[in-house]
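Before a colleague's protein record goes any further, I have to sign it off. Thanks in advance; the entry in question is below:
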Amino acid sequence: MSSSNSNSAKKQYAYREFGNDNPAATERPTPELPPNQQNVRVQATRAGRKGKTVTVITGFQTKPETLADLVKKLKTQCGTGGTVKDNEIEIQGDHKQKILEILLSLGYKAKISGG
């Protein structure tokens, strides 16, 4: 009986078209563009954040590792917290002008969007 339990624990397939065995195979590659070719938008918003202002930077076409390094630089320069969500950077507080200056000094084509 123990052999049937071990067989049911291992799932063996004769044919399987879709599966989760190799998620890297179905993942889309992210184009790594140099900073001077990326159109980045900086916007301060409160929508969906219980009244707290957050500066959102969108328009990146780069790898998540590069975004992680960039968010670390921005957090230290602004002296506040932040994160990367869905290929966007969120920095706590209204730091539009400061972030714009930092991004321009790093070579990004950045603009302030919104009001």
